[in-house]
Amino acid sequence: MNIGFIGLGNMGAPMAHNLLKAGHALRVFDLSTGAVAALVDAGAKGADSACGVLQDAEIVITMLPASAHVKAVYLGDDGLLAKVKPGVLLIDSSTIDPLAAREVAKSAAAHGNPMLDAPVSGGTGGAAAGTLTFMVGGAEADFAKAQPVLAAMGRNIVHCGGSGNGQVAKVANNMLLGISMIGVAEAMALGVSLGIDAKVLANIINTSSGRCWSSDTNNPYPGVLDNAPASRGYSGGFGTDLMLKDLGLATDAARQIRQPVILGALAQQLYQRFSCDGHGGLDFSAIINAYLGPQDKS
Question: Catalytic residues (predicted)?
Fold first, then answer.
């Protein structure tokens, strides 16, 4: 299938590589010429603008940083909707607020283009391995058309309902993730401060009722899991500023519908303070360093 792909960052680039591996023909664009060149070397065709990916495209996928970028790429005077042929399926895998997703999808429908919001979970590791979870909002028929393409990049492809519901699922999930990481960080810091070995405590948590992804896959305590960001100086993984963005989306959406998210709002403030202290580029599990004393940090 001929696919246009816009946005070749930490998530978009490996997703695009997996589409190539699955045999799809790709035309790609990113503001980073180096990112485009890397995909061209892997077999894609490069484009010199976002609309340049539309040539021969049957599906267009975008993976962009925020709502403002998505609106600019799709709705601007020189945006995709000004030039895309009616009938081309549009898939936005960015993480943005649900109302913005619905706004763009409504404009796409008016132009004659079906659109899906399909944010992902699984991090950069899942993007590279092709094991992402896609949370998809949009019409059932459009989801069915997109599913084989999404399956080249992910393992779990879930239809969440109408337009915007993929984003609803994403922000709710990531709000919980941010909260759970803080909980694991507090528990690990408390246990170690009281004298238990970090690996022993983590093993108990991971075979008991406290077990969660933040404890058994991305444990925040240094040295507990060899492959976790905590054991490589919190490099890679899912950045603190990205978590802060997602928590902001969740709390903003909650405010619009007057839904209490008490722990979500507290988590947002904790990550905001941590980011303001200069740690925005670290994996979000580094939040444990807000609890550890200097002698405990590695």
Answer: 170
